[in-house]
Sequence to fold (222 residues):
Amino acid sequence: MSLINSTRNGCKDVFKAFLVEKASYQGELEIPIIEPQEFDEPKKLILFSKSFRTDDYDQWICFYEDDSSFEKLWNNPRKYLDHLKRFKGVISPDFSLYRDMPLVMQQWNTYRGKAIGCWLQNNGIKVIPNIRWGDERTYPFCCLGVIKHSPIAIGSHGCAKINAEKKYLVEGLKLVVNELAPSTIIVYGPVIDEVKNLCKSKNINILNYSSDWRNGREGEKV
Fold:
């Protein structure tokens, strides 16, 4: 399902409707769509919180950090637009989907990440959609807002060492790969063998970036 948002005059914008005034939507939850774009492979990634302390703009901004570090972007997106425009591009925000979080909040965080990504794209910024999933309850909506065969990004930081977390990482990625057949997956964090083998079997290019909480290192093809 694809809808076009309409505007309403004389109403206070209590849910930041301006973010999606030019959006098309996908699914029953009406998640804003981030359109596929041509882009050069990112040389480096930098966390949003660290992007204010650099003059190296030949990087892509990402949000693989605690939500409190970038909640201010949701609260006041216009304030940070010019700052984000300085960089090569943005990976859409990675709002948390904790498995003990009520499902409606996980749906809301999925919406928020895609809404900001859509808005940044409509303001001339190159955007790669981030995909975050939790347990099986999130599978029906975690891929919404992303067009098939688009490049995507995921964060694996904290998901590679504990067996239970590794299981959710691999099982969720299988769903994403089967549903979206992405051309490229940007992985912020370690690439475990299960992920590497899955992508190799589907002929998907992996670009891997360090999650050591320093500036992202050069993209490494895996």
Q: What stands out?
A: The CA atoms of residues 67 and 152 lie 20 Å apart.
